[in-house]
Amino acid sequence: MRVPSIPAADFLPLVPAIILLVGACVLLMTEVFLRSPSRGYQAPLSLFFTGLAGAVSLSSAFEPARPVFQGFAAQDPFSSAVTLVVCVALGLAVLTSSGFLRSRNAERGEFYALMLFAASGMSLLAMSTELITLFINIEVLSVGTYALTSYLRRGTRPAEAGFKYFILGAFSSAILLYGAALLYGATGSTKLSEMAVVLPAALAAQPALVYAGALLVAGGFAFKVAAVPFHMWTPDVYEGAPTPVTALMSAGVKAAAFAAMIRVFLVLGKGMDPSVPLALFSGLAYLTMIVGNLLALPQRNVKRMLAYSSIGHAGYLLVGVAALFVTAEAPAGDGFRFFGATPLLAPGLSEVAARADALKGLLFYLLAYTVTTVGSFGVLAALERSEDEPKGTAWDLDRFAGLAQRRPGWAFAMAVFMLSLGGVPPTVGFMGKLLIFRSAVDTGLVGLAVVGVLTSAAAIYYYLRVVVAMYMRPAPEDERIPVTLSWGTELALALSALAVVVLGILPGTVTDWLQQASTLWLGQ
Amino acid sequence: MVPTSNYLLLAAALFCMGMLGVLVRRNALVVFMCVELMLNASNLTFLAFARHRGDMTGHISAFFVIAVAAAEAAIGLAIVIAVFRSRGTLNVDDIRTMRH
Amino acid sequence: MNTLQEFFQTSPVPPNTLAQGLWWIIGLPLLGAFVCGVFGKKLGRANVSLVASAAVGGSLLISLLAFWAVNDVRTAATSAYAALRTPYTLAVDSGTWFAVGDFRVNFGLQVDHLTAILLLVITGVGFLIHVYSAEYMSHDDGYWRYFAYLNLFVAMMLTLVMADSLVLLFVGWEGVGLCSYLLIGFWYSDAAKAWAGRKAFITNRIGDFAFLIAAFLLVTLVAAFESQATRANFGFPGGSPTTFSRGLDAQGPLHFEALKTFSRALVTNPTPGGAVAAVTPDTPIATGPLKDFTYGGVLTAVLLLFLLGASGKSAQLPLYVWLPDAMAGPTPVSALIHAATMVTAGVYLFCRLNFLLVFSPVAMGTVAVVGALTALIAALIAFAQDDIKKVLAYSTVSQLGLMFMAVGMGVFWAAIFHLVTHAFFKACLFLGAGSVMHGNADETDIKRLGGVGREMKWTAATFGVATLAITGVLPLSGFFSKDAILHGIHQTELFGLPWVGPLVLRLGQLVAVCTAFYMTRLFVLTFWGERSPEARAARAHESGATMVGPLVVLAVLSVVALVYGLNLINGQPVMENFLGPVFEPARRVVSALGTVRVEHGPIGVGGYAQAWALALLGAGAACFLYLRFYPTRAGQQAPAAVAAVRRFTQNKFYVDELYELLFIKPLKALSFVLYKVVDALLIDTVAVRGTAWVTTRVGAALRYVQTGNAQAYAAVMALALVGGVAYVIVRFLTP
Predict the structure, then answer these.
(1) pLDDT (tens digit per residue) in B4-43
(2) Higher per-residue confidence, C613 vs A286
(3) Count: domains in chain C
(4) What ipTM score was computed for the predicted complex, to two decimals?
(5) Shortest CB distance from A188 goes to which of B15, B53, B83?
(6) In this complex, is the C-beta atom of B31 within 8 Å of any C-beta atom belonging to chain C?
(7) What's the gap in Å between the CA of C721 and the closest CA on chain A?
(8) Hey, is the C-beta of A468 within 8 angstroms of any chain C C-beta?
(9) Which of A139, A360, C150, C654 has its CA 20 to 30 A from that of A5?
(10) What is the nearest CA distance from C175 to chain A, expressed in angstroms?
(11) Is there a cis peptide before residue A426, judged by omega within 30 degrees of 0?
């Protein structure tokens, strides 16, 4: 057997991930070799590597799609866009971390190193096109986040959160792996490109094997993106994890997992009746939107509320995923029916155009959700006092009472984030919802769009409650705001609030870019 | 020669046992071991298919999975120890401060 | 006369130059909001009010120029959707805002006659209210915040009326909602007031989502039309399918010109002997998610959804409940937002989309009936209110109902006319009420006022003028606008729904009587008679010049606005002639489809007399009741009579009781029941709180599934997967 040679050019797409890995190692080394007690340089250092990785992925965003490492991974605009989203999430999370950790006397190089390791896993996951590579990258990002979740040693919460996340995460990884094994058995390959070729034959021979495998793989992904009914870990883990880590998890992990899920199911969907993934993702989207938002309604704990709301947002993203699988003509046989009608594309819309639209909506929504949610967790991180954490009241709605008088800047930023999460114009959240619901309507998924609109109307209620608390309730007398101000937190809040508003009013440049990237990737 | 289907059935049985174990066992360490059982059931499936098809991919996959499982074990044990240190118990039923 | 006409029809600034400057109309108040919001604390009170007023004042000046320019014959905008020029329209297109696939939205503004007149109302009344607020809010700590919100509101309202597409209009629509929410809850330390703000916001959101769905449907409809229409559809001057498609690519389907071209192409008749148009309102849609519905049917659905949206913003049934509570905000805010401008957005929306509304007699009839019922119910509720601002709030709801009636019957110009006159006199009334509160230690209960007119002469005089105007007494503007509505309705018949016109007309006349009654009652109880023994302040004091000034200006305006109602130009009322070009597309649709039948005829002296009699009936009844028989006043001013006085007084007392029993009691009971059942119970409790309660309960129940036990979580996941796998096995392994 000839050992295949790997062209040097195949390593180019890995550069962002390599930069992140090198950065992680450098930060670990600073702990070993530099014994200075001051660690203020670590956040800027991590930021430097993050920015570098983001810049590199941006520069390669318009290169045509090509497989690398013999089809184990792919370099394409899609992976670049996801890497960019991950870098944005990572950068903002790092910025909020420094002040957060310093006030808890817990700033260490390994924290940033773990973040960078996890981010490299996310970046690589977005480009994996082979099931085992995919599994390994899921584990890389998971192991990093398991450790980050239980990083703080105060009280019982971090350890409990880490334990739940670990057990359930490993459980879901095992399910995904078993699904991958079944798919391997049916098709004889683990590379997506080769599976696409043999899938029709495999389906004819062993439909149950393929469908069961696909279902288990979908279950594994559904866990990572926190889709109902695989969502139950989310509130507990998000609550227990250090807030900057929660921010990274809710934005970065979600983006990467969505990317991998889309990649896998676009290939599987080509081979099988596309109405099957359509039914699967529509069902998940319905459940996730409704349950996520309903659960968030009674929450007074803002951190948990944001966790449940992140489930709801996963539901909106799933609407976009479902829209990827609508075809121009009704599939033969008994396809998926939707209130008695098979959803079809709007007239004059080609399949590639519709998918590019949906994909653009998804990527934009991911970006929108990232800047908004990381920002809101940033406010939360700035506001919480370490001595409250063991009691679990650190994130109560009362902590926000009268914030507008005491910290008008933070209150304004938080109000902007809440409005964006609720989808009120002129924020980026509104644009994201508009794009997603619009492609749902275009693809005939009107029911999903209607439920989406209704649930976001209900969601306004709990987002607005925070705004009301900040602006319309008096501050408690004895309250004190932690004075551990750090430039990082302030900068992160300012940047995310600015991004939320600017992208909400002038989304043109970014949507044009994402449109190009999506068309470039799908039009291959 | 033992037919492939027997291996597959064994693997499926192991997977289900692991899954049930995760759901019903109370000791965190045992739960963790059950997850490992599930991973190994996947491995066995990979190997059975690889042998059936005479393909190397499945064999290689198994090695990777073993390596990943080891890494996971390391972090998992660390977390289990952290839980024990903060609570003095490993009963899964007691690890539920955060809920609702 | 000709010289005068020429003067008004020659813009001092070239229209094209002015079009480029349109953004400044929005930009100035936005800048003002920014300056007040960010630097307000450091600037000091005087500077903040100066900046805010100057910003709106500057806007007013540019608006005046724009108003002038749209009368210029040189002014015309090129349509991207057909090779023709829309006369009397200023337009500026600032390029792509965003594009989703082939769906595109541009940033663009347009000013036609309709927008121009609203620009003047918004900036004019807005400017006066800014000036008034400078004194009214002078003691408030949140001074800078108030002016920042108020400027932001003006900017958003201007965006709403100047938008050249539904999307930008929606930005303004949401923006004014947000500002209204912020200003209603301005005194947030009071829980009830904060709740009022939230109630307004939530009620509005229901409407907003209907609006969004309607807009989505319209996009789909236009796309289906684009693929289905043939050349014969575009058989009007300048029309062609390629131009239309190119226009859609360049400016998107939600541009008003696009919708206008769409409506025109939809009714273009086949030329005799020529090709037959492929698409008419009765054609089923061929492709897409709306397949097999007819174009006309979908349009009706779109319009009904817009009606729900409009009834949220414009406080119509069933979403009107937020407006009376919105009076929690500062009074000038009530005057500007909840009387003169924002609440009329729904009326504006339908006038803007006039060419779509006339497609559907069903939608028109619904709009008219909703308006009429709202007008009546609100007027009846106003009978029982003792809070001066509450009376005015219900009166606003009622007057908005009148405007909806006019819109629904297709008398668009009269609706806009009434909108303008209402803006003047209702702003005057609210500011007057504010002045009364200012001078009476913030007392709002009219039963604890009385006799204020002696101390507050200016306020009383202006309030009186405005009361006469809203009552519809002959020489004032309110008379002309209300009569234009009723007369227009009298002349109109909706195709297939002949009963709507007469019904609405009778209801409208009833509303006119009621309006006269409660407004007179309000005026009489507040300004006449003796000072109530329960009054908070022993003597009222007149407000300062910056408060009285705007009152006087508004009172004058509510008189001189009558010019619009006179038949000066071509035998038409000025307003009808002025707005003619705006509603021309609707007229074209009507003449093609025959959805509305209009019998033109001048308003006779009989009509005037009837209207006046109605107003006098209501006003007279109120005067009679509250001046002569009102319990606390009775006996105090007993007429100096002779021997039989005593008996007469007793008799009077008896009559009083009888009145109380026969008229006031049932009416009060009715309006109380309406208030309790419709307002408080049905809508407030069942619709708003009920929905919220149910969803919150479900959420609260669901959260207990979240037990905190990791194994339970795993079990849920496992169950879902096992269910899925079982389904796969049953589906694919059984033959």
Answers:
(1) 899 999 999 999 999 999 999 989 999 999 999 999 999 9
(2) A286
(3) 1
(4) 0.97
(5) B53
(6) yes
(7) 7
(8) yes
(9) A139
(10) 8
(11) yes
| Euclidean distance between CA atoms A103 and A106, whole angstroms | 8
Cβ-nearest to B92 among C704, C710, C718: C710
CA C60/CA C133 separation, integer angstroms: 17
Q: Which domain holds residue A320?
A: 69-522
Is the CB of C102 less than 8 angstroms away from the CB of A507? no
The Cα-based distances of A386 to A114, A247, A500 in angstroms read: 22, 17, 29
Number of domains comprising chain A: 1
Do A181 and B45 lie within an 8 Å CB cutoff? Answer: yes
Q: What is the DSSP letter of C682?
A: I
**Amino acid identity at C415:** A
Give residue-wise pLDDT tens across range C149-158. 999 999 999 9
Domain that holds residue C716: 709-733
Q: Specify the residue for token string 């870990």.
A: A233
Rounded CA separation C240/C245 (Å): 9
Give pLDDT tens digits for A342-401. Answer: 677 766 678 888 888 899 999 999 999 999 999 999 999 888 877 776 676 778 888 888
For residue C417, which amino acid is it?
A: F
H or E segment and range at residue C383:
helix C361-383
Q: In C, which residues are within 8 Å of B24 by CB distance? A: 711
- Give C107→chain A minimum CA distance, Å: 10
Query: What is the spatial distance between Cα A133 and Cα A190, in angstroms, rounded to a whole number?
Result: 9
The number of helix segments (H) and strand segments (E) in chain B equals: 3, 0
Q: Cα(A435)–Cα(C209) distance, rounded to whole angstroms? A: 15
Looking at chain B, which residue has its C-alpha nearest residue A216? B42
Nearest partner of A401 among A390, A386, A414, A417, judged by Cα: A414
- pLDDT of residue C682 exceeding 90: no
Within a domain: C584? no
Q: Please give the Cα distance from A195 to B84 (Å, whole number).
A: 45
C709 and B CB contact within 8 Å: yes
- Within 10 A of C4 (CB to CB), how many other CB atoms are there? 8
Query: Which is more confident, C453 or A306?
Result: A306
Mapped to the 3 state alphabet, what secondary structure does A358-417 carry?
HHHHHHHHHHHHHHHHHHHHHHHHHHCCHHHHHHCCCCEHHHHCCHHHHCHHHHHHHHHH
Distance (Å, whole) CA A175 – CA C281: 55
Q: Any idea of the CA torsion for A143, A149, A153, A157, to the nearest 10 degrees?
A: -130
Q: From residue C606, how far is each of A189, A369, C492, C511, C602 by CA, in Å?
A: 91, 65, 18, 19, 11
Cβ pairs bridging A and B (under 8 Å): 123
Length of chain C (residues)? 735
Q: What is the pLDDT of residue C649?
A: 36
* Cβ separation A216–C713 shorter than 8 A: no
Q: Are C36 and C137 in contact (CB under 8 A)?
A: no
For residue B3, what are the contacts with CB-CB under 8 A and spacing of at least 6? none
Reported as a pLDDT band with limits 50, 70 and 90, residue A481 is low
**CB distance from B19 to chain C under 8 Å?**
yes
The DSSP element (H or E) to which C91 belongs, if any, is strand C90-100
Closest partner CB to A233 (pick from C97, C227, C713): C713
Does B85 contact C at CB distance below 8 Å?
A: no
Alpha-helical segments (H) within A104-191: 109-127, 131-149, 157-187
Chains touching A, CB cut-off 8 Å, 3+ pairs: B, C
Cα nearest neighbour of A156 on chain B: B86
| C161-173 as b/e: b if 16+ CB within 10 A | bbbbbbbbbbbbb
Contact of C434 with C332, CB cutoff 8 Å: yes
* A306 vs A310: CA distance, rounded Å: 6
